[in-house]
Amino acid sequence: MLRSNYTWKLLGLSKHHKASPALCRSLPFYPLIIIYSRLTLGRNGAMIAAALCAVLYSGLISTTRLGLISFDPPRMERETLAFRISFHALGFFALAFR
Asked: Does residue 2 lie in a domain region?
């Protein structure tokens, strides 16, 4: 259970704020794309798919932060966004490597 306010802030969450529904619905599709590419294209195809998913996810987060797309997410600092993007990219590559 997350109790520290810093941990909540680091993850981009707040105790009373619900996450953006559009952003939460888009995230589960990235692992599915990587899994399907692993099954059909092998490890190299899965690594390429993971790289593309990382680029697309970081583009989605960055354009939302810049205000080009309005999902009405909570405002986050650059360090928090960098942490989230790198954490998800690491997860994408770990899923592709497995």
From this structure: no
